[in-house]
Amino acid sequence: MAKTEILAPVGGKEQLLAAVRSGADAVYFGASSFNARRNADNFSDEEFISAVSYCRERGVKAYITLNTLIKDSEMNEFSETLALIAKSGADAVIVQDMGVFERVRSCCPDIPVHASTQMAVHNVSGAKLLESLGFSRIVLARELSIKEIREITSSVKTEIEVFVHGAHCMSASGMCYMSSVFGARSGNRGLCAQPCRLNFRYKNREYALSLKDMCLVDGIHELIEAGVTSLKIEGRMKRPEYVAAAVTAYKRAVKGEKPDITALQNIFSRSGFTNGYAAGKRDLSMFGYRTKEDVLSAKESLAEVENTYKNENPLVGVSMKFTVRDNEPSVLEISDGKNTVTVTGAVPERAIKAPLSVESAERSLKKLGSTFFYPEKTECDISDGLMLRASDINALRREATDKLTALRGNKAPYSYSPYERPLFSVSRWGEPKLYLSFMSFDSIPDDADADMFILPLTEILRTPDKAKAFPERLIARLPALIYPESEKRLLSELKKLPDMGINKVLCDNIGALALTKEAGLEPVGGALLNIINSDSAEKYYSLGVKALTVSPEASFRSIKTLKTRADTGLVVYGYLPLMHFRCCPLQSETGCARCEGKGEITDRRNESFTVLCENRKYSVLYNSVPLYVGDKALPDVSFVIMSFTTEPKGEIRKIISAYKNKKAPAGRKTAGLYERELL
After folding, report:
1. Relative to the CA of 469, which of 52, 309, 385, 616 has its CA 20 to 30 Å away?
2. First to last CA, the chain
3. Can you tell me whether residue 570 is helix, strand or coil?
4. Cα Rg of the chain (Å, integer)
5. Residue 593 has pLDDT above 90, yes or no
6. pTM for this predicted structure
7. Which among 239, 570, 538 has a CA at the least distance from the CA of 437?
């Protein structure tokens, strides 16, 4: 069985030292831009190259984060960053954006690419699709159980990485828009402001959107047995002491030793830890927030941990062969098993009193304490009656280790060629088609008229007679979150649609896309695919998505720059989904509250946000104010979507009428991010 990797977070130089010296097998960090922790210290270009070399010298892999959404206007700068990464010879890049993946594959085909957890892979179908595209590793969604992880690992050959420690996002990764909607600081762009950590309330319960940090240190061997390749620690914004403590704890756990969980909790936690998702126990015990006691415990523990990584630790074993001959320069050969360095030093003299012994030579050779090397084997071949000063041997040893270090740090850069995107003209004229999205057939006003109607797959199959009234105008919507237990059922249900005259399916996730293609149906890209650039749109087009919805985080300006053969659409009305939960905030102490699928979360200003349950599989938090841009000058798109959730029929009629007359309906509304630029 391959060695299980401990993967540590690095936000700057101090975190890098802490991670490597504490024994991390690999680290992940970003360059100065285009990574999901833009507020971390990160590295300048020169520091970045040095950081990758530092890792390589010590046998630690370096994975580079490119895991953000990128605008068309940023692609030239992105290409410069990618060229820098290619030059560094880093071990892999981590990506979220399908357009970024396509550009990396085109410009730098030899570098391994990992799928970020922001790609929201939470099922076998999604993992298989990414594997077929050439991803060498997939970072699974945090909200999976060990049983579900095992099901995915057993179904693919690509490496699987899972988070084992650190902050839990309340929302499914890659599907949170709260920070961007509240303040244009997008989690998908590396600038999440963590508004979920504020005091949102549900009834008498406070901090209803804040989860405890995860800690799976006690279940490590279950993950290893499940086939997980890499155990990932979250925390690129955290202190180096946190990194050191976490790496140390998980290294001990992998070795079968008992880690000090209390010490780990004292460094950083939110009212303790949880293993709820991994254990499949998504209850109220998962919720917690940062208390004053947590902060005080951390302050008391920092100094103790800091002392553990101040010096180099022996990480790389070496063998040394030392030869001393009369009238010849002394020779030291040092090897790490792959790289070998030979250096020559002083010529020995004839000994007057005490000749150089093997024991004294070995004592000098083994003084590797200031390096990351340790002696595995030492061989001395010394002719009789010769003398060589200890200082000469020490100088020879230092020269040899310096040269071996440099040799270990060298790696040929990856080949890199500028990106050449196929050129094609895109022309869209006329009024965009109108798509209306509803939660049920009963919500549709009798006089509602549209080019297409979007309804949940379960609703279509539940009321087939209503669906058969206009099948050519129906798009079945798959759930945004599909877990392994539902895949076979959903595939079976999808295969029933052609007999009903329905062939289009709205897909908000890579797994939904895979299932739709397997069923032989036509995928329509949903807004949650996070498409904000031309390369991403074209990549999905190549995967069979001939019509797609741009991300709600895209501005009108950026939508106008999209160049794609796909029909593009945008949401012009709807309460935007801010978060998708697998751990429902509406549940009671005994589990599901049987709340009829609806509840309200309240913020500090007493603003209310609706939570709707989706078939008891997951729930969705919606914005308190609806998006509406029907009265604006829209970009040229092929279709627009009006998405209705809980509005009464009378209100729905008025909103549709307002759109058709290019007017604004009465009441509160927002233009969302369409008229702002994401930071």
Report:
1. 616
2. 44
3. strand
4. 29
5. no
6. 0.94
7. 570
